[in-house]
Every structure is written in C-alpha cells, then in structure tokens.
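Tutorial handout. Part one gives the primary structure; part two gives the three-dimensional structure as tokens.
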Amino acid sequence: MRLLSYKKMQIMQKNIIFHYAALISCLLIIAVCFLPWIHINSIDQTLTGYNVTKFPSGVYYGKAGIIITVLASIIILLNLWKSKSARSINLFICALLVAYTIRTYIIFTGSLFEGEVKIYAGMYAVVLLSFIILICGLFPRLYDQKVTD
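Part two.
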C-alpha cells in the first residue's frame, strides 16, 4: 500500500479550495438575505429576503429568504459530511437552490410597467452566489485515503 500520488494530491488541494468557497458562499448567501433586494415604487416599499409583508392582493413577499437559508444550511452540513451519498444529495440541493433563486428573481423583479421595480445589489448577489455554490458542488471534497496497487 502506498499513499496518494502527487497528481491526486494536487487534485485534492484544488477541491479543498472549491469546498471552502462553497462554505463561504453559503454563509454569504444567508447574510445577503438580510440586504435590500428590490424597491417597489408604486407602494414605496423596500423588500428583503426576510421582510414578510402581506399585500392587498394577498401575496406574502419575503418568505424567500427563509427557504434560501434552510437550503444553504443543508448544503453546509452536506459539505462537511464524508459520504458519497451526501455528495449526490448536495448536488441536488445545490441545483434546487439555483432553481429557487432564479424563480425568486423572476417573481420579485417582474412588473407590468417600466421602472416600477428598482433592483438592488442584494438580488443579484443571491443569484450569483447560488451559481457559485452549484459550481463548487460539482467538485466535491476528496478525502485522503490509502490506495492499493
């Protein structure tokens, strides 16, 4: 039995960078949910991920941050778990997070009139960070183990 080869060690070091980038991105996406996402000019209100407000139409905006936080927390736990099944589940949850943030972007920024919704950097950051998390989820962390020849 011998230890891992030099090439495999280089791959492991690169994957560790993706691993830490995913963890930092998950923490950042949770923090970005507290930032302002959009401002609706017609009712003069700024919405964040946690600003739960009932509108006259009966729609509650602001629950998106709760779901994004739960998904990001699950991704953090799965990144720290050393299992092959955790890697597959993590990739599925990352794809689900990307789909949900795209849905949230479409719902929050969609309007009938030009200039009715002003989009802040928080909305763009949520979508960008979710894509970073997905890309990092494609390269799971490899753990050092002994191999046989």
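Part three, for discussion. The chain has a mean pLDDT of 83. The longest strand covers residues 36-40.
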